[in-house]
Amino acid sequence: MVKVLILALFVWSTSALIEDELKLFKTSGKKEINTGKVGWVKVVSSNTYHLITSNGIPDHSTGRFPARFNPNQIKEQSYKFSIPTNPSMDPNGAKCLNMGYIGVTVNGVPFFNPMNAEGQNAGEVERFDQCSGHPDPGGRYHYHILPSCVFKDQINQFLGVALDGYPLYGPLTDGGKVLTGADLDECNGRYVNGKYRYHATHEFPYIMGCYKGVVRRRLVPGQHCYFAYNTAKPAKATASSISGTIYTTGGTANGSPCKLPFTYSGKTYTKCTKAGHSQEWCYTINGKWGNCIESTTARRPTTLAAITPATVRPLSATVKTSGGNGQGGNCVFPFTYGRVLFNSCITSGHTQPWCATTSNYSQDKKWGNCIQGDGSVYECSCTSRCCTRRERPTFFQRDNKPNQRSAICCGCTLCSTPGNIGR
């Protein structure tokens, strides 16, 4: 079922959706088994935006939900996706992917970034139905990975569009070649005949690694934002970088690259510095600052950078641990857990704040509970508030007393460390 209306003629940009692509936004008319409803999608275009509306009901086979591995139901939605008619590259560089939808497929079902609510690789830890989708607590059926029932194994198949306006295509190209990360840039995209497009693939980050273009949607306070970089090949050095593209984590930069050279306290730096900080940092192209992930090479990060919109100050003291198997060693920041790079104690997969005692927990499995100088457990740095339907409450122990589990904190997995206590 399809409803397409073109209201005005407009000048196409080099990567704007063309009329043949817009006509592909339609559904099969198949009734979804859980809701008994039929999916629909509608496109209304103007000089500025394509307004794509849908009820989010998939037009293909789905699993039975709720299920043992997923307690959520599929529910009808009222989506309104505002897609730029003339997309443009972000002059400040690629941007991290918000939680929730980052684009919409041709059947009106949204696709999300490759991470789940706990910041883990969804393609590895989540369970999907036979068409590579599942519902979230709000009833939103969605895809984290290549949607197997939308992709028909066709060459140069148009699958949908990202929120920044650039089209999404499947992994099959001319000659039947299957694209991999080695063929694509850090955002899982490339130029074809002078036009930029994303490609869904069979490997991480599956659909997109970041936004290449300007996006209107803003982050919700307390929400994480991810650069899900494809690490198959080096990134090209940029004009603003002397020693190559250097990416950041933490700070206020939301993962933006360094801008070199930069001036701090009257001194000019041509590389990352520890001046006034316990680890190497830089000012970034958006006028903010962040901790340098790599300070000497032109390769993009080999792990995912977890970004939080809240301000996180530089770590200024050592964080000690107790328990776990880290033998009382100090926290090592940043550390990798579930292909995510963390610069603070976290609560993912645990009942209280913890950290890795080596730089790569995923490899070494060494960890401990974060403690303060007096031996008490660090508490959540977020403001306690009521949870929304999409959030899961997190409980924290206080003062090492197992019977006092309190401090409910929603929408945040970062916990206080010496540099951001109470923030």
Question: What's the SSE pattern?
Answer: EHEEEEEEHEEEEEEEEEEEEEEEEEHEEE
User: How many strand elements?
Assistant: 27
Q: Determine the strand fraction and express it as a percent band.
A: 25-35%
User: How would you describe the shape?
Assistant: globular
Percentage of residues assigned to helices: under 10%
Strand order of the largest sheet: 7-6-10-11-13-12
User: Tally the helices: what do you get?
Assistant: 3
| Structural class by helix and strand composition | mainly beta
Measure the end-to-end span.
49 Å
Q: Which assembly state applies to the chains in this document? A: single chain
List the keywords.
six-stranded mixed beta sheet; 423 residues; mainly beta; 3 helices; 27 strands
Report on this model:
- The chain is globular and about 60 Å long.
- The protein has 3 helices and 27 strands.
- The strands form 8 sheets. It has a 6-stranded mixed beta sheet, with no helix packed on it. It has a 5-stranded mixed beta sheet with strand order 5-14-20-23-22, with no helix packed on it. A 4-stranded mixed beta sheet has the order 1-2-3-4, with no helix packed on it.
- By secondary structure, it is an all-beta fold.
- The N terminus and C terminus are likely disordered.
- The longest helix is centred in the first third of the chain and has 4 residues.
- Strand 10 and strand 11 form a beta hairpin.
